[in-house]
Design a protein that fits this description.
2 domains; 12 strands; Deoxyribonuclease I, Chain A; six-stranded mixed β-sheet; 9 helices; elongated
Length: 323
């Protein structure tokens, strides 16, 4: 085999070494508490930084440096393996279930197109959960009333505005606000389901560019709220839909997925659902919108565009126990 020029070999070695370092750093960060913006960015970019390990494996193979090629290959395999569960359906709903469709949409402080939101929700949802709902837009969405006659809205002219529309009767609406975090919950009476289903919409503060501590506090509050909902749910299901400003590669987010809570995309094997930003020519690159389930089984998850919003909507089909 012809020997590569020394300068070319040196360049490939440097690139390969940097790629391995960045990929290994990303894998480590995935299991760290995120305390600064650098760690947040690295965790958010994890699905793409996997490519660094693959690139390093190829480069070192070209250089015939087999030991580091094996190291890069093991690193790449490990990084891919931790994401695989999101692409393998892990639940099979029981026969005696009722399906409910839940749609979550961030309305970008009310700039999302009302007509498009109404038509998308009418075609795809039984329950619509929205975030960043200002007072003015809440008044404009009367087109939802024909399909979703029940609602619990807490609009605000800030990022904390949230709301829930439902085809089915609701009761006990509750609203919570704190430091740019907003929660609204209702009990939904789905026909054919004995126990009422708790539906929650949430909007958490982002970790960037504001202090990461605000985001961490929001995650802690949401975790406590999820435990509280579960403690009073009895046999009823819980569905949490919203802009959580966190990806599945952030350890703080995965901390929510305990005590019976599951991410619908992972549960259904739908893979990582990139939802933001959705207002540019390139596809969304981070998965910060989520639908979580408790005592329920998500069977499919998909996205839908709502023009002018900077998030794509997230839609999940969820099976609820009928007994």
């Amino acid at each position: 085999m012809r020997t590569l020029p020394r300068k070319f070999t040196a360049v490939l070695t440097v690139i390969g070494s940097l790629a391995v370092f960045v990929a290994a750093f990303a894998l480590i960060v995935r299991y760290l508490s995120l305390t600064n913006h650098l760690l947040v960015v690295v965790a958010a970019a994890y699905p793409f930084l996997v490519c660094g390990a693959v690139l390093a494996m190829v480069l070192f193979a070209v250089l015939r440096r087999w030991l580091v090629t094996i190291v890069a290959a093991v690193l790449a395999a490990t990084m891919i393996a931790v994401e695989l569960p999101w692409y393998i359906a892990s639940t099979v709903p029981e026969a005696n279930t009722v399906r409910v469709r839940v749609m979550s949409s961030n309305l970008r402080m009310g700039t999302a197109n009302p007509a498009s939101l109404v038509s998308t929700a009418t075609l795809n949802a039984d329950v619509l959960a929205v975030q960043e709902l200002p007072i003015g837009l809440a008044r404009e969405l009367h087109g939802l009333d024909a399909t979703f006659p029940y609602r619990a809205l807490a609009p605000r002219d800030s990022a904390e505005g949230v709301g829930i529309w439902s085809r089915y009767p609701i009761e006990q609406p509750r609203h919570f606000y704190s430091d740019e975090m907003a929660l609204t919950s209702v009990l939904v009476h789905v026909p054919g389901v004995t126990a009422a289903t708790t539906v929650v919409t949430a909007h958490l503060p982002g970790p960037f560019p504001k202090p990461v501590s605000d985001w961490r506090n929001g995650m802690d509050r949401l975790s406590k709220s999820l435990r509280d909902y579960a403690s009073v749910a009895g046999k009823g299901a819980i569905i949490v839909a919203g802009d959580l400003n966190a990806t599945n590669d952030m350890s703080e987010f995965r901390g929510l997925l305990r005590d019976g809570y599951r991410d619908a995309a992972e549960q259904a094997g739908a893979g990582i659902q990139f939802t933001f930003p959705a207002d540019s020519a390139v596809p969304p690159v981070v998965a910060i919108d989520h639908i979580l389930t408790f005592q329920a089984a998500a069977t499919s998850v998909r996205t839908a565009r709502v023009p002018i919003s900077d998030h794509v909507a997230l839609i999940a089909d969820v099976a609820l126990a009928s007994g």
